[in-house]
Amino acid sequence: MPLDVGMGILLAIFVSRTGLLPLSAAAVAAGILFSLLPDLDFLLHLARQGTGRFSHEHRDLLHNPLVFISAGTIFLAFMNGGLALLFALSAIAHFLHDSVGMGWGVRWAYPFSKKYYKFFSDPNGHASRRFLVSWTPDAQRAAAAEFGDPHWLSDYLKLSREFLIELGVLAAALILLFAAGFRI
Ligand SMILES: [Zn+2]
User: How far is the CA of 18 from the centre of ligand 1 (A)?
Assistant: First the structure.
């Protein structure tokens, strides 16, 4: 999550450099919001299930890049081109982040395919040099049940290496933000 926030800040800086959006508090807030927005389905999942145990299942509602990105970008393009660009880039960054490391992939080709795709993973979900792995919904559920870490959320938050790297990216983004002339 800190990585998503950091990427939202970095992308707000980037889009401001195109001249489409001034580097305001609203633009930075929008970048952060857009970068986190797909995980709204995780909150809905937690509210419904009360547990993060099989949280990969939350990714069925909003984690469909073709649908989510095109719908949001087209909607925002009617209001503000800079916001639309910021939304598209933030969402792409989020889905790429979700396609490596933890988790069980993203349905990149939905609605044309229900398969989940993950980069640099073996079929058991562990880090690997293999560029791409994919699961059908049934295969993903079976792999997650067998190889999934039921404590992934608490392990991740317990200052895991991934979490520390994400905090580093967030810190770098904040430094760049103020170096770019942003003032609250
Ligand atoms: Zn996500």
Answer: 27
